[in-house]
UniProtKB/TrEMBL annotation:
PROSITE patterns: MFS (PS50850). The lineage of its organism: Bacteria, Bacillati, Actinomycetota, Actinomycetes, Micrococcales. The chain crosses the membrane at residues 73-94, 101-119, 125-147, 159-184, 190-210, 254-274, 280-306, 318-337, 381-406, 412-435. One of its GO terms (molecular function) is transmembrane transporter activity. This is MFS family permease. Keywords: Membrane, Transmembrane, Transmembrane helix, Transport. Residues 35-436 form the Major facilitator superfamily (MFS) profile domain. It comes from Pseudarthrobacter niigatensis. GO terms for cellular component: plasma membrane. Residues 1-18 have a biased composition (Polar residues). InterPro entries: MFS, MFS_dom, MFS_spinster-like, MFS_trans_sf. It is found in: Cell membrane. Gene3D superfamilies: MFS general substrate transporter like domains.
Amino acid sequence: MSTHQSPTTPVQNTSSATPVEGSAQARHVPHRWRNLAVLTGVTVVDNTEAGLSTTLFPTIAAALKLQSSHLGLLAALGKLVAVPAGPAWAWLAGRIGRRKALVATTFVGGAFGIAAGFSQDFVQLLVFNTLMSAAIIGGSPIANAIIADSFDDSQRGKAAGYFYGFISLISSFIGPLIALFTGLTDGWRYGMWAIGAICIAAGLLVMFFLKDPGVGASEKQLADLSGRETLAPKVTAGTVLSLFRIPTFSVMMISRLLSGHLLIVIFGIQFLVAERHFTNAVAAIVLLPFGLGYFAGTAGGGWLMALLDRILPDRGRVAYLQGAQVLFAVVAFFATQFNYDNIGIYGIFWALMGFAQGANPPANRPIVAAVVLPELRNQAFAIFLTVFETIGWAVFSLGAGALAASLGIQTVFLWTLVILMLVNAVVLTALYGCYPRDVTKVRDILETRRQEALQQG
């Protein structure tokens, strides 16, 4: 019988699998917290690299005689390369294993980072920086898939909260430390070499300390079955495309394109300088409360979502995610549409916006994981994090930049940070109907696989 099945239909398999000690109950996956710590280190590199060109560019520009337009090209290509690279790394992980793929992303990214430090002109820098981005971007979707297999559904919100919270917190320290190199002659080269070395160090941590739990390890229907990875059908282009036939997945991708809050990170400081007339140095003060708020939103949000899951099973996290969009819109309205003379007031608003933005990962990652079969999560997260997020980033950054010149950043913020986020919340209402059904479909497929395995065992 064919093993090519839609991820939303039961699978008939001919694989041999036998139950081991235990029963169909959620179990703690061994080494899950160690895995989370190691994966945090890998993704910190990705997060730090994303802002590296901005941090080091002033000294790069002086050394290589570049202009601001070069920075735009450098940043844009570093982002856009994620669209093909993310799914490609997810495909490779399915062929050689996720642990080996993570080692490859970090080692290759580190090599290109070091090579970028030796660049003699802009073309060389552009090529090596883009290749470094293409390599490092593979770590995020693979890491999210491993986290989903390390923690059961009830714990994924907390895990995602800690994961993204500490990534933001650690990155906020690494960036300024690397910037210290700019005080040296050719200091930007040392900065690039440092990033390359951190990449390789992260790869070594994966090599020696990451224990891939295996696909489906956290699912109660599969956890006590030996050979569980042989129960799933082979992943093909057709099964990956079938992800878009999952209503919840499609709604989440649309929501990603409506995530106007991405703009506050890109244009927030420019708004405070151009529209509110603070100096660059004073405006940058809001970055600290924003980062702390983001950490509070991710770490605390995971605990809140777990509580809502118990009160409103399968719908609590939808209400939580909607609430995060509305909260951001309300805070952004008061933060950007009124003029305040004190940077401290803006710091409070930026902390609240950081909290609302940070509240998203503990909900949207578990929602995606819950409606996608385990063997397709690599590809699902690659589409979510490297394709649709990148498209959203490009649309908002380029579109807002063009409109800001004629309408002003404050008006652009009204439409993107306030109105669009409220539209996003309305779109997410669709999840109340489709999300519980899609979760049930996945549970039924996994239960079918379990019963087949028990009969054949």
